Amino acid sequence: MKSAKFVLLAMLSVVLLASCQSREIKVKKLVKSHLEQSLDNPQHLKIKEIAEPDSAFGLNYFSPQEQAYLLGTVTNVTKVLMERTAYMTKPDLDDAYTMTLADLEMRMSTGLFSGMLGDCKKGPWSGWKVRVTYTCKSKYGCKYKAQRWYFLDKDCQTVIRSFDLPIVNTGKADKTANPKADGKTKHGNAASKIIMSKVK
């Protein structure tokens, strides 16, 4: 009887492992393809990290830790952009860094907040949430780093929703790119630094 239980557990472990590996392969292919099709210069795309898929409970639900992380990132991006443009009184349209950051902030605001106007309560399991950290080159000739959040269907075959978070250098220590890493993420820390520089 014990040997039968052991065999059953072993078989179940193999099935679960195969399922996780299959999901991981699907996620990598899907997000890479989506990024390549949505960026201005996909030939400069470099994927730095694809986080492990996390369960999603609706397209608008974020855990308290994720909400703090997102709020801190938005605050830091806005702060850097305001400083670069003297609070929008002296925007330099020839500054590739500023123009790139402004574009990214616009995409961030549209993709993040437009989906948060509805019900933000935790719903039933709806699929998977995945964070991808990448670097690319903007249409203004500026290399940038960002993090794209994906909401995928249960089979990891379709992108249901996505939005970008620019990673800016605010001079603060970069503790982690994972808002759940140690449970001690503070509101003031951006997830990871988005460093931008002109590409020669």
Provide a descriptive summary of the structure in words.
The protein has about 200 residues and is of the alpha+beta class. It contains 3 helices and 6 strands, in the order αββααββββ. The protein has helices spanning about 1-40, 65-85, 95-115; strands spanning about 45-50, 55, 125-135, 140-150, 160-165, 195-200. Strands 1, 2, 3, 4, 5 and 6 form a 6-stranded antiparallel β-sheet that branches. The chain is globular. Residues about 10-20 and about 175-200 have low confidence and may be disordered.
Q: What structural keywords apply?
A:
200 residues; alpha+beta; 6-stranded antiparallel beta sheet; 20% strand; globular; disordered C terminus
Number of helices: 3
Strand content: 15-25%
Give the overall shape.
globular
How many strands, what sense, and barrel or not for the largest sheet? 6 strands, antiparallel
Residue ranges: pLDDT <50 for 5 or more in a row? 10-18, 173-200
- C-alpha termini separation: 69 Å
Number of strands: 6
Short description:
Helices cover 38% and strands 20% of the residues. The protein has 200 residues and is an alpha+beta fold.
